[in-house]
Each structure stands twice: as C-alpha cells, then as structure tokens.
C-alpha cells in the first residue's frame, strides 16, 4: 500500500483538488451559499469532481513512473517500480483504474451532454501524451504538462457550463505557471541553468500580476491579497535560492515549492471570485499537502 501511495504522489493530489475548488469558485457556484446552507445535492457534484481529479492526477503520475521505469532504475532507483516494491504490471493496472474512475466521476456530473466528462478525457489524454512523448521536448513538454493543469481548472469551472463559456481563457494561467515549473524540473538530478530559472521567474511574475488584476476587477483585491502574497513567498524563496546555486537539490526544492504553492494560488482565486470562508477552507489543504510532502516524494 505504501508503494502504491508513493506512485500516486498524495501531496500533489491535494493540489489538484484545490484546482477543482478554485474552478468551482470561479464558476460562481458558491455565490450566496454559506457553510450552514450547504446541502448534499449541492455538494455532491463538487465531491464527484474532486474524486475525478484524484483519479486523473493519480493515474497520470503513476503512468509517469511506468514510462520512466528504465530511466529511474539508473537515476532514481529508490522509486517503487525500479526498487521492486511495485511491479510494472501492477502500476499499469493501478494507473488505468485511477484514470477510469476519474473519467467516470466527471461524467457523473456533466453526463454525456456536459463538459466535465470530455474535459476529464482531455486531462487523461494530455497526461499520457506528456508521459510518453511530451516530456522529451524542451518546448512542447512544459506546455503539455501545463495543459493538464489548465484543463483541470476548467474541469472545476464546468460545474456551471455557462460559466465555462465565459472563463475558458483562464485555463491559460495554470498552463503558463506549470510550464514554468516544468521548465526548471529537468535540472532536479544534474542541476539547472540560471537562464532557465530567470525565465521561470518571469512567468511567475506574469501569473501573480494577472491574479492581482483579476482580483481587482472583481472588487476583491484586498481580500485576495494575503493569499496572493503567500503564493508569491512560497514560489520565490526556493526559486531565488536556486538562482544563487542551481544545484540538483536546490532545483528540486524550487520545483516542490512551485507545486505545493498551487494551493495558495487556488485559495487566492477563491478569495477573488467567491468568499473568504471558502478561501480559508482551501488554504487549510496546504498543511495537509506539506505533511504528505514530507512523507511521500512530490517530484
């Protein structure tokens, strides 16, 4: 069981759940709703979308290790498959099951006529394409990885289909952000370049400036500012350390920081588009992810 959990990257899955909650907030699904007025009928679609992203993200990262099994036997022999904890066949079965659960859970929300199920298929396809081919391309690879997160945010927004037609363009924001994180992740083993780190810093700045502008336009700037500030702190502290010393361990910390900080980013979206109580509920996922990140590998 520990081996299976290591394959699924539990700390990362928590960040994927935060993506969904941010998308739901952007869709205005939470408008005029408080914790005291939540009902089962209202919350069930949200729960199903969270289950969908658990399956999609978990299945995606499992297949990442399946496709990297040979390389990991040299570079990361401690991982479950090369160490012999989990066989490659077992990993393929687990990954397939998780992706299937994710797609079915999404279709349970949107049915065949809705967007959710088809977006889930898009996430699963993008993840498999990245694992097999995308990661080997220096330019298309990061964009491919970012597409997975962009579609995941849209999966949350699809809970209100009409809003997806309005806010589809917001999927580009996580694409830029995750592409920036993926851009430096190639240096985790052998170290990276300062030029690559500076490019990532520029992309980060573009993302949080955009977040501030959108929060201002929705008249929630001061409510979202603490969350945006936390996000900026979490991504830039390890990144600047890596700029001073672009060694493998420092790059790894910068990548881990970029992934975990997604929860702060998503809490900021919730504060900008919904209410502070829901934003606090999302930010409370952060300590859970941090604890899991100490137990299980994030990258």
UniProtKB/TrEMBL annotation:
<keyword id="KW-0472">Membrane</keyword>
<keyword id="KW-0812">Transmembrane</keyword>
<dbReference type="Pfam" id="PF01040">
    <property type="entry name" value="UbiA"/>
</dbReference>
<feature type="transmembrane region" description="Helical">
    <location>
        <begin position="223"/>
        <end position="242"/>
    </location>
</feature>
<keyword id="KW-0808">Transferase</keyword>
<feature type="transmembrane region" description="Helical">
    <location>
        <begin position="197"/>
        <end position="217"/>
    </location>
</feature>
<feature type="transmembrane region" description="Helical">
    <location>
        <begin position="143"/>
        <end position="161"/>
    </location>
</feature>
<dbReference type="InterPro" id="IPR050475">
    <property type="entry name" value="Prenyltransferase_related"/>
</dbReference>
<feature type="transmembrane region" description="Helical">
    <location>
        <begin position="167"/>
        <end position="185"/>
    </location>
</feature>
<feature type="transmembrane region" description="Helical">
    <location>
        <begin position="278"/>
        <end position="297"/>
    </location>
</feature>
<dbReference type="GO" id="GO:0016020">
    <property type="term" value="C:membrane"/>
</dbReference>
<dbReference type="GO" id="GO:0016765">
    <property type="term" value="F:transferase activity, transferring alkyl or aryl (other than methyl) groups"/>
</dbReference>
<feature type="transmembrane region" description="Helical">
    <location>
        <begin position="115"/>
        <end position="131"/>
    </location>
</feature>
<keyword id="KW-1003">Cell membrane</keyword>
<feature type="transmembrane region" description="Helical">
    <location>
        <begin position="43"/>
        <end position="67"/>
    </location>
</feature>
<dbReference type="InterPro" id="IPR044878">
    <property type="entry name" value="UbiA_sf"/>
</dbReference>
<protein>
    <submittedName>
        <fullName>4-hydroxybenzoate polyprenyltransferase</fullName>
    </submittedName>
</protein>
<dbReference type="InterPro" id="IPR000537">
    <property type="entry name" value="UbiA_prenyltransferase"/>
</dbReference>
<feature type="transmembrane region" description="Helical">
    <location>
        <begin position="12"/>
        <end position="31"/>
    </location>
</feature>
<feature type="transmembrane region" description="Helical">
    <location>
        <begin position="88"/>
        <end position="109"/>
    </location>
</feature>
<feature type="transmembrane region" description="Helical">
    <location>
        <begin position="254"/>
        <end position="272"/>
    </location>
</feature>
<keyword id="KW-1133">Transmembrane helix</keyword>
